[in-house]
From TrEMBL:
It is an enzyme of class 1 (oxidoreductase). The chain crosses the membrane at residues 6-24. This is glycine oxidase. The lineage of its organism: Bacteria, Bacillati, Bacillota, Bacilli, Bacillales. Pfam families: DAO. Pathway: Cofactor biosynthesis; thiamine diphosphate biosynthesis. It catalyses: glycine + O2 + H2O = glyoxylate + H2O2 + NH4(+). Keywords: Membrane, Oxidoreductase, Thiamine biosynthesis, Transmembrane, Transmembrane helix.
Length: 381
C-alpha cells in the first residue's frame, strides 16, 4: 500500500475540497473526521456563491472569492462524472435588495465598486425587480442584480468532494478524532487520534471552528471563534422566487423541489447548537418584508451551524513558519462554500511545491498575529 502523503484533519467542505483536489493530482491523502463528513458548519450553509454580494470591498478576499466562484461550473461537471452527485449549481443570479434609504446608498456604493472592479452588476428599480420576481414586495426600494453570483447545495457539494476524493484513492475516515499533533526533528510527523497514531510528513488542519486548539499545540495562535447562524426552510408548490434574494436581516435561497432556505442569524462566541424561537421569529419578520407570500408556505425545518470566524475576518491559509509539513486552511467564516474550490486548489499547489502567484496570500499568513512560539512546552523539537 502506498504511504499516506498527507493527513487532512476535518471533513467539512474545506477538508473535503482539499482531499478532492489533492487526490485529483495523484496524491495519497487520508481525511480524518471526528463525526460524519460535512456534519458541522457545512451542513448548515445556504450554499450561496455570493462573491459580489457578500464581499463588497477591494482586497484579497474579493479576488479569491471571484476566482473560486469561477471554478464551480466545471467542478459541478467533474464531481457529477466522478460520483453521480448533482451539487445543485443554480446560476439564476442574486438580487441584493434595498429596504431602506440607507440600504439604497450602501448598495449603490457597492454597485460603483463592482463596476470599477470590472464586474457585472446593475441597479433595478422596484418595478424591474417585481417584473423579474413578482413575489417580491412592492415596498422595496430597488435592488442590485448580480448575474454571476450563483448557488449550490452545500451538503451535496461536501459529499461530492469527499466521495470524488475516495474514487480517486483518498481514505475518508469518519468518527476519528485527532487529539494531538506529533512532531519529530523540527517537522510534523503525524497525528494522535482516539484510535492511535497515524504518521505522515504533511498534516493540514482544516477543522473549522475547532482548529485553534490543535494549532496551539504547534505554538501558533490562530484564534477562531464560532458565530452561530440559524436558518429555516419552507416548501411551496410553485417556487416563490428564482433568484437568490439577499437583504439586511435575511436572505432567501431557492432550492429544488420548491424549497426555500431562509437565513441566517449571527451570534458570536456561541457553541450552543440549539435553534432559538427568537432567531426564527427574527428571520420570519425580515423575510415577510421581502416576500409577503412566505406566510402561506409550508414549514419544513430549522437548523443552525457554527461559522468559523477569525480576528480580522480572513481565513488562515498557509504553512507553519517553523514546523515543516504543517499547513492550515481554516476560518472561512461566512464564505467557506464559495471559497472551498479555490482553497482546495491552493493547498494542492502548496503540496506540489507551487506557489499561487495571482493571489495575495500574505494577508492569510498563519503567523500574521506575530505570536508564534515554536519551542512550546510539551512539543518535542
Ligand atoms: P466545518 O464544516 O465546521 O468542518 C470542520 C470539521 O472538522 C467538522 O466536521 C468537525 O467535526 C471536524 N473536526 C473538528 N475538530 C476535529 C478533530 N480534532 N479531529 C477530527 N475532526 C475534527 N458559506 C458560503 O460560502 N455560502 C453560504 O451561503 C453560507 N451560508 C451559511 C449559513 C449558515 C447558517 C452558516 C452557519 C454558515 C454558512 N456559510 C456559508 C459558511 C460555511 O458553512 C463555512 O464557512 C464552511 O462550512 C466552513 O467549512 P469548514 O470545513 O472550515 O468547517
Ligand atoms: N454566507 C451566509 C451566512 O453565513 O449566513
Amino acid at each position: 500500500m502506498k504511504p499516506i502523503d498527507t493527513i487532512i484533519v476535518g471533513g467539512g467542505v474545506i477538508g473535503s475540497a482539499i482531499a478532492y483536489y489533492m487526490s485529483a493530482r495523484g496524491m495519497k491523502v487520508m481525511l480524518l473526521e471526528r463525526d460524519r463528513v460535512g456534519s458541522q458548519a457545512t451542513i448548515a450553509a445556504a450554499g450561496m456563491l455570493a462573491a459580489q454580494a457578500e464581499i463588497t470591498e477591494a482586497g484579497p478576499m474579493f479576488d479569491f472569492a471571484r476566482a473560486s466562484r469561477a471554478l464551480f461550473p466545471q467542478l459541478a461537471t467533474d464531481l457529477r462524472d466522478l460520483t453521480g452527485i448533482d451539487i445543485g449549481l443554480k446560476r439564476k443570479g442574486l438580487l441584493r435588495v434595498a429596504v431602506t434609504e440607507a440600504d439604497v446608498i450602501e448598495i449603490q456604493r457597492t454597485l460603483d465598486f463592482q463596476k470599477t472592479a470590472g464586474e457585472q452588476a446593475e441597479w433595478l428599480s422596484t418595478e424591474q425587480v417585481r417584473y423579474k420576481e413578482p413575489s417580491i414586495s412592492s415596498e422595496i426600494l430597488g435592488a442590485m442584480l448580480v448575474e454571476e453570483d450563483s448557488q449550490v447545495d452545500a451538503p451535496e457539494l461536501c459529499s461530492a468532494f469527499a466521495q470524488a476524493a475516495a474514487v480517486l484513492g483518498a481514505q475518508i475516515v469518519e468518527f476519528t478524532e485527532v487529539k494531538s499533533l506529533l512532531f519529530a526533528q523540527r517537522r510534523i510527523s503525524g497525528v494522535m487520534t482516539n484510535v492511535g497514531a497515524i504518521y505522515s510528513d504533511k498534516v493540514i488542519i482544516a477543522s473549522g471552528t475547532w482548529s485553534g486548539s490543535l494549532l496551539a499545540q504547534a505554538g501558533l495562535t490562530c484564534p477562531i471563534y464560532p458565530v452561530k447562524g440559524e436558518c429555516f426552510s419552507v416548501l411551496s408548490h410553485v417556487p416563490l422566487v428564482q433568484s437568490t434574494i439577499y437583504s439586511h436581516g435575511c436572505y432567501l435561497v431557492p432550492k429544488k423541489g420548491g424549497r426555500l432556505v431562509v437565513g441566517a442569524t449571527t451570534t458570536s462566541h456561541s457553541y450552543n447548537r440549539k435553534v432559538s424561537l427568537g432567531g426564527i421569529a427574527q428571520l420570519l419578520e425580515a423575510s415577510k418584508q421581502l416576500i409577503p407570500g412566505i406566510v402561506d408556505t409550508e414549514w419544513e425545518k430549522a437548523w443552525c451551524g457554527l461559522r468559523p470566524q477569525t480576528l480580522d475576518g480572513l481565513p488562515y491559509l498557509g504553512a507553519h513558519p517553523h514546523w515543516k509539513g504543517l499547513y492550515v486552511a481554516a476560518g472561512h467564516y461566512r464564505n467557506g462554500i464559495l471559497l472551498s474550490a479555490m482553497t482546495g486548489n491552493l493547498v494542492a499547489d502548496w503540496a506540489e511545491g507551487k506557489i499561487e502567484k495571482n493571489l495575495s496570500l500574505e494577508s492569510y499568513r498563519v503567523d500574521r498575529h506575530d505570536n508564534v512560539h515554536c519551542e512550546k512546552e510539551g512539543v518535542p523539537s
